[in-house]
Structures are given as structure tokens and as C-alpha cells.
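User: I've been trying to design a sequence by hand for this structure and keep getting stuck. Would you show me what you'd pick, starting by listing the structure so we're on the same page?

Assistant: Good idea, let's start from the same input. This is the structure you sent:
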């Protein structure tokens, strides 16, 4: 008998920009990958909001997606608080199924372990069934409840397919199942459901392009080695094609099509590349919009598929590219240069103060959902020019390494022994991959001292970054990050990283020992 798996969660904050705004498409990708491994999806409880949950308000509506007779169904749209109440009933039903042994594992997508998914997560922890998922805060909270998380990550840089493949791969390994990822593209002769305008998402486009920026930074690091000095021309080439990458991703996402959208985006990006990544992205969005409407027109008028693809991809790309070249590129280039100029101005005025302020504010920014909307795009704008970034160094130092220090302290000197097992995976992921700073949330939110220590360590580390003139990037293994710093600053970047982790470790250890002493009284 096939293993039975439940999917629970929500469209989330950051996930909303990485596929969560189209729950059906995201869940169908999981079905496709699960089927390849002989795994059955037998339960769904997914809340799809009309906007990112980083910015929810009283007017936010949502739908509850469930599974009935093997088909994905959705409720009528209603205020989010009412949908949450309905979801709680589903949560109770799922918890009963888990306790009865009817569910063998769960996939978590920005779930709410302390809210609408509490009963199911608690039951899963009691039955020790494997859990896989994404969503930094939710996974950290799941682990704090004792959940057996065998695969976890944040959401940044993921796609529907990479998440689904990661989930199924982990479960297949856990159960020793044969699994071959299904990587075939969907047909390009169809248009994705939903409003084309709702698919325009600057954050989602930029985050999907992150691998391109990291590859550029890696080439830059290698070019510093005498034997690989010739790679400097490769670096220049990569800088030149980044606008094309952004344009292709934007056109594909916005058009809702596959190859046709990509072709239109590539054409638009090549023509508009002088506008930098902003110019390329805007041209790609325009190409995606035109592709959608031209394709829809052709399909409605029974134009043959080949002709429709040529017309939508070619005409859309050319029109958007020429518009980008002559109208968008000059304004986009000016905007990008202005952002970089403002950062340089702050650093020239007082690098220590600029670093300290950035270090202090970056934690509230990521906790409040502002990081992915504002800071990450600026990091990419900085990297577009030189391959490294001031805010990228702040990210790695003040977020990743501070989180690593907090989790390491809870591995070695926890308040309670059970917290050690919760903290260890987060520490490993932060060091090995340069991401998953949310792993420290359970410890920060449960102790004002730890939270204050994180802000203090981050502020001091940020000041050191500014003082030493370090620029770099996150989203890479910690051992590699110093190699991706600005020229002759690698050792200084390492000093910044170690000081951040060390200070966070020390302050967290002190806070834990004080709290532990109170508990034993």
C-alpha cells in the first residue's frame, strides 16, 4: 500500500511570491512528484490568501483548499479570520487521522503550528511521523513542538518544482522508495489561469534570479586566483546577461506560459539590457503581459498553435524590447545608479554608523516582512555592478552568523535539554547554506534577553562591517562567503562573521544560564 501524505499550510508571506499565490498550480506540482515515487496525497488543508500574509489586514480574504474524491477543491472566498475558523475544524479532523495511523507524513508549506495547524502538528510530533517543509518561522515552530522534521528550509529562491522535488526526495529516502524527479515542462500551448496583472511580482522575480547573482559572485572570487585570472571576462559577461535573466523569468512568470514566455523575455532582455536588472525586469514584465494577451487573442480566434506561439513570443519580445531600449532603460539605469549612490553616500559619511544602523534594523526588517520587499532587491542592485554588496555583507554577518551563534549556544548550553535537538538543524543549515535565519526565532521570541542579545550582536557586527569596509553576499556556505568579498577584504569579512557569531553565542549563553537558574529555583 502506498504511503499516505497530507499537505498543510498557507500561501504565507514570502511563499506568496514564490508560487503561493497560485495554490492549485503549486499543489499539482507536488502531486506530480509524489506520484513518481508511489506516494499518495490523501489530505489537503491549505489557506490561500489574496495577498502576502506579511501585509494582512482586516480586508484580506482567503480560500480554503481541500481534497475531495481525489480532486483539489476550494471554498468560497471569505475574510481570512473566518477561513481560519473553518481550517481549525479541518485541523482537528487531520489530527484524528494522524492518531489513527491513516497519515504517514506531512508536507508543510508556511503552516501555522501555533494556530490553525496546532492539533495536526502536535499529533504528528506524538506519532513521530516524518515532516518536510518550507517557511522559516513555521518550520522552527514545528521543531519547537517536537515535530520530526527531516527536510527543512526557508522559502527564498525556491520554486514550486524545487520544493516539491525536495519534499518527495526526503520522504523517498526516509522510506527507501525509488524516485525519479519529473522535470518535463508543461505544454506551452496553454495560458495559465488567473489575472495576468496579479502575477506581476517584483520580489518573486528577483528571488528566482538569485542563482544568477551567486554564480557571478563565485566567478568573481575564482578570477582573483592567478591561475583563473582569465575568468574576469566571464564575470563581465555575466554582469551583462543578468538583465536578460531577469527579463526571461519575469516574462515566464507573468505570461503564465513556459517556452513562449521565456523566448519573449529573452528577446526583450537582450534589447533592454542597458537598463540594468531593473530595466530588464520591467521589459520582461511587459513582454509577459503582451504574450498573455496576444496568445489569448490567437487561441480565441482559432489561430494554429505554431503561429500563435511565433506571434506571441516574437512580437511580444520585440515590442517590449524596443520599448525597454528607448524608454525604460534610461530611467531604470538612473534609478539603479541613484540607489547605489545613496548607499555610497551613507558609507562615505560614516561607515561605522551606517553599518550599525543597518545591523540594528535588519532583524526587525526580516521579522516584519520588509526584508524581501526592500533589502534583497537592493542587495541585487549592488551586486549587479561589482559582484558584491554592503547590505549583502550585513545580511551574512548580522542575520546568518548571529542566527548561527544563537542556535549554537542552544545546542551547547540550552535552557532545557530538549532545545538542543531543535537548534542543531538550524545551526547546520545557516553555516552550510548561508540561509534559514528563522531557526533562531523560537529562542528569540521566548526570551527578551536573547532577542536583545541578537540586536546588540547585530548592531556591533554591522558597525564592524562598516569600519572595515567589507562588502559581500549571503546565500552561500559560510566557509565560502569570505572568498566572495570585495578585493583584499576576505580576511576582514571572516573577522566580521566570527565576531557576530561569537558575540551572539556569548550573549545567548549568558541569557540561557540566567533563565536556567531561575527555572531550577
Amino acid at each position: 500500500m502506498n504511503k499516505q501524505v497530507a499537505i498543510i499550510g498557507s500561501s504565507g508571506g514570502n511563499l506568496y511570491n514564490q508560487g503561493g499565490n497560485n495554490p492549485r498550480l503549486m499543489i499539482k506540482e507536488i502531486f506530480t512528484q509524489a506520484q513518481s515515487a508511489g506516494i499518495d496525497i490523501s489530505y489537503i488543508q491549505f489557506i490561500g490568501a489574496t495577498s502576502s500574509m506579511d501585509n494582512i489586514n482586516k480586508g484580506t480574504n482567503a480560500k480554503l483548499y481541500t481534497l475531495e474524491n481525489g480532486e483539489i477543491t476550494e471554498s468560497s472566498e471569505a475574510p481570512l479570520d473566518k477561513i481560519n475558523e473553518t481550517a481549525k475544524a479541518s485541523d482537528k479532523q487531520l489530527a484524528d487521522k494522524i492518531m489513527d495511523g491513516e497519515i504517514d507524513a506531512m508536507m508543510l508549506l508556511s503552516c501555522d503550528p501555533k494556530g490553525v495547524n496546532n492539533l495536526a502538528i502536535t499529533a504528528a510530533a506524538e506519532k513521530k511521523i516524518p515532516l518536510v517543509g518550507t517557511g522559516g518561522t513555521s518550520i522552527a515552530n514545528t521543531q519547537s513542538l517536537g515535530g520530526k522534521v527531516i527536510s527543512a528550509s526557508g522559502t527564498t529562491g525556491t520554486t514550486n518544482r524545487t520544493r516539491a522535488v525536495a519534499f518527495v526526495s526526503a520522504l523517498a529516502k526516509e522510506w527507501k522508495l525509488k524516485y525519479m524527479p519529473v522535470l518535463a515542462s508543461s505544454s506551452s500551448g496553454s495560458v495559465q489561469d488567473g489575472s495576468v496583472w496579479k502575477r506581476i511580482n517584483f520580489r518573486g522575480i528577483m528571488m528566482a534570479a538569485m542563482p544568477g547573482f551567486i554564480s557571478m559572485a563565485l566567478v568573481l572570487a575564482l578570477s582573483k586566483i592567478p591561475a583563473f585570472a582569465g575568468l574576469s571576462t566571464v564575470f563581465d559577461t555575466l554582469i551583462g546577461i543578468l538583465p536578460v535573466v531577469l527579463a526571461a523569468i519575469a516574462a515566464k512568470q507573468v505570461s503564465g506560459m513556459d517556452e513562449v514566455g521565456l523566448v519573449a523575455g529573452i528577446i526583450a532582455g537582450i534589447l533592454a539590457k542597458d537598463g540594468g536588472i531593473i530595466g530588464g525586469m520591467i521589459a520582461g514584465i511587459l513582454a509577459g503581459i503582451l504574450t498573455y494577451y496576444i496568445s489569448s487573442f490567437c487561441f480565441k480566434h482559432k489561430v494554429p498553435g505554431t503561429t500563435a506561439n511565433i506571434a506571441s513570443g516574437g512580437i511580444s519580445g520585440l515590442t517590449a524590447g524596443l520599448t525597454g531600449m528607448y524608454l525604460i532603460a534610461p530611467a531604470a539605469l538612473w534609478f539603479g545608479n541613484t540607489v547605489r549612490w545613496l548607499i555610497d553616500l551613507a558609507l562615505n559619511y560614516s561607515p561605522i554608523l551606517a553599518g550599525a544602523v543597518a545591523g540594528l534594523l535588519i532583524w526587525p526588517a526580516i521579522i516584519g516582512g520588509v526584508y524581501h520587499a526592500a533589502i534583497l532587491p537592493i542587495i541585487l542592485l549592488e551586486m549587479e555592478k561589482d559582484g558584491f554588496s554592503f547590505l549583502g555583507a550585513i545580511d551574512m554577518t548580522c542575520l546568518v552568523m548571529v542566527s548561527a551563534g544563537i542556535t549554537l549556544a542552544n545546542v551547547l548550553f540550552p535552557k532545557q535539554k530538549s532545545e538542543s535537538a531543535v537548534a542543531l538543524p538550524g545551526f547546520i543549515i545557516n553555516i552550510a547554506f548561508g540561509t534559514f535565519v528563522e531557526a533562531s526565532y523560537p529562542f528569540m521570541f521566548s526570551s527578551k534577553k536573547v532577542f536583545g542579545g541578537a540586536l546588540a550582536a547585530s548592531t556591533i557586527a554591522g558597525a564592524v562591517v562598516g569600519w572595515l569596509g567589507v562588502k559581500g553576499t549571503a546565500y552561500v556556505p559560510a566557509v565560502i562567503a569570505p572568498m566572495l568579498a570585495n578585493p583584499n577584504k576576505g580576511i576582514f569579512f571572516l573577522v566580521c562573521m566570527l565576531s557576530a557569531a561569537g558575540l551572539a553565542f556569548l550573549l545567548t549563553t549568558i541569557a540561557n544560564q540566567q533563565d536556567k537558574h531561575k527555572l531550577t529555583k
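That's my pick for every position. To get oriented when you compare it with your attempt: The two ends are 52 Å apart (CA to CA). The chain is about 65% helix and 10% strand.
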